[in-house]
Every structure is written in structure tokens, then in C-alpha cells.
Amino acid sequence: MIPDLCHRAARDIAGAHHIVALTGAGISVESGIPPFRGPGGIWEKLDPMEYAHIDAFMRDPGRVWRVLIADMKTLLDQARPNDAHMGLVRLERMGKLKTIITQNVDGLHQAAGSHDVIEFHGNFAWQRCLACGRRISTTDVEMAEMPPRCSCGGILRPECVFFGEMIEPVNLSRSRDAAARCDVMLVVGTSAMVQPAALMPTIARQAGATVIEINFEPTPLTGQVAHYSLLGEAGATFNAILAALEREFQGDRKG
Ligand code: APR
Fold first, then answer.
1. Is the domain of 105 the same as that of 172?
2. Nearest atom in ligand 1 to 194's CA
3. Shared domain check, 189 and 68
């Protein structure tokens, strides 16, 4: 089943001219970053409304920093791109992949070498002072005090989109445009539970794109919005698709 689907994905990619990827936490699991949902998900242990909602952060920023953000900083400091991130870079270099819409804040697509990355939920690389608005690189944040503070004394917050906050309008409009323009959308490692990001595959499908899902387990897209789903780990699945794609291209050249 999976080899057949890998071959089908390779064929669709070979015929595509404008691929857009929507990625989620699952693509970074093999880089050592736990997902939010699914096996080992952070939200199995913590209530997102208690730790990832802007009201919770404003009520008690020290608690959110201690329980969630500090660990995230340690994990993200160490994380490196994996085969799935590199697979998307290879598709870009082939001239196939144009844009990545990522829900991740880990910066691993850019670290891998992808160029057009829309960070739908912001990024963790920067912190912003709630008092003076100054931006500070996350690597420079002094972690001795919780919550960490700016030199002006204000509390720092990551430049990530918390629940209850708006998506940056330019990110939303660019993502909608990209979804509407693609001929293939690759949906990788997202539970498709969080809106409006989860709407992008529907926009792509309604505009006529083939929607291919790569995920460890079925999601609300499976058998619905996705034309087909490759159920497995993202890195190994990308390697299998790319191997099939190389065979496909060789076949084209011979033919
Ligand atoms: N390969 C592929 N998929 C995987 C892997 C893997 N190695 N490991 C886990 N997955 C799957 C999980 O089974 C799950 O279906 O990836 C999906 C990850 O889903 P979520 O954790 O919900 O991540 P995401 O969809 O990006 O979450 C959306 O929710 O809490 C918020 O702001 C957070 O951006 C995040 C948003």
C-alpha cells in the first residue's frame, strides 16, 4: 500500500509545477521536538488553554515561561532539520516547491535551506518586550529570572501566536493565495485541528490542487480533503517518495 502511494505521490510531484507545503509539529518530531497532539503530544499533559492562551500568559507569564516556554527554548536550541525538512528543500531545488506554510515556530525549514517560508504562527527566534516593544533574540535571553525580562524591566514574550490572538494578516493572505495557486499541496505532520491553518488544504482542493497528506496517523483531512494519505513518519516517507521520484525522472529522460 505505502510503496504504491509513494509512487503515486512521486508521479503527482513529477507532473506538478507549483507545489505548496503545509507543515505542522509532526514534521519536527524526528528532530526531537514533541508534537502537541497525537502520541507523546504536549497537550496530553498540559491544558493548552492554561498555557498557550494569551489570557493565561498575561495572567501569569512566569508560570507559562516555567512550564512551557523554558523547555521549548532548550529543545529548539538543540534541534536540527531532519530528512523531511531536507526533502522539501530538495523539491524546492528541483523547481517544484514554491512556498511552505508552516505552523511551526522552530525555524527548522529555514535552517534546512528553504527560502519561502510563511511562519503562520510566528516564530520562537525572537522575544518582544511587553513594555517597550524591543525585540531580543531568544538565544540572548537571560533565563535566570522567570519570567525573563528586558533591560527596561518589561516582561518578554515569544513572537509566537498564542491561542486567542490574530494571525498576522499578511501571513493569512499570503497563505490563502499560495493555497489557491498550487497544483499540489503536501500536508505534512499536522493534526489539522487548529484554524485557520487547517483551512489551507480545503482552499487548495477547491482550487483544483491534488492534496497529499503525510502523517503518522489519520486526521480530519484523511479520506476527506486529502486525495490520499501516506500514513507513516515524515522523514522515511519523504525519502521513499524522493527515491520513487528519482526513478520517475529517470524514466522521463529515457522516454
Ligand atoms: N511524522 C509525521 N507525522 C507525525 C510524526 C512524524 N514523525 N509524529 C507525529 N506526527 C503527527 C501526529 O500524529 C499529529 O497528527 O503530526 C501531527 C501533529 O499534530 P499537532 O501536534 O496538533 O501539530 P499541529 O497540527 O502543527 O498543531 C497546530 O496547534 O497548539 C497549537 O500552535 C500550536 O501550531 C500548533 C497548532
1. yes
2. 28
3. no
